[in-house]
Design a protein that fits this description.
Elements (H helix, E strand, L loop, with lengths): L1 H5 L9 H12 L5 H20 L9 H13 L4 H17 L4 H8 L2
Helix pairs in contact: 2-3, 2-4, 3-4, 4-5, 4-6
């Protein structure tokens, strides 16, 4: 998204809504293993880009509950998934964006 903006393909730079919608879309691409792997890669890349983007407003708990959902849906139920969700939770905590929904998603892992 950011690259398309930088290349002049789109006028507006991505904002938090763009990032979270991509992540949320990835969270529900769960039909085949290859699709899940690709969706996970896109969700993680988008999440990392969002955290680095100064233009993405960091004022919503959805910036963290959508990635938690993606990790829960796309990773097998193991220690790696638990650690990844905890990392997202810690980032939410550091950003002051822990909501009841973020806690519920953490507990669902």
């Amino acid at each position: 998204m950011k690259q398309m903006h930088n290349n002049g393909q789109v006028e507006s730079s991505p904002n938090s809504y763009c990032y979270t919608n991509v992540i949320n879309s990835c969270a529900y691409c769960i039909q085949e293993e290859e699709e899940k792997k690709l969706s996970l890669a896109i969700a993680v890349q988008t999440y990392k880009e969002m955290l680095k983007d100064e233009n993405a407003e960091q004022k919503s708990h959805h910036l963290f509950d959508f990635p938690e959902t993606a990790l829960r849906n796309l990773l097998p139920n193991d220690d790696k998934r638990t650690a990844a969700v905890h990392t997202v939770f810690e980032t939410a905590k550091e950003s002051g964006q822990v909501s009841q929904l973020v806690i519920q998603k953490l507990q669902a892992v």
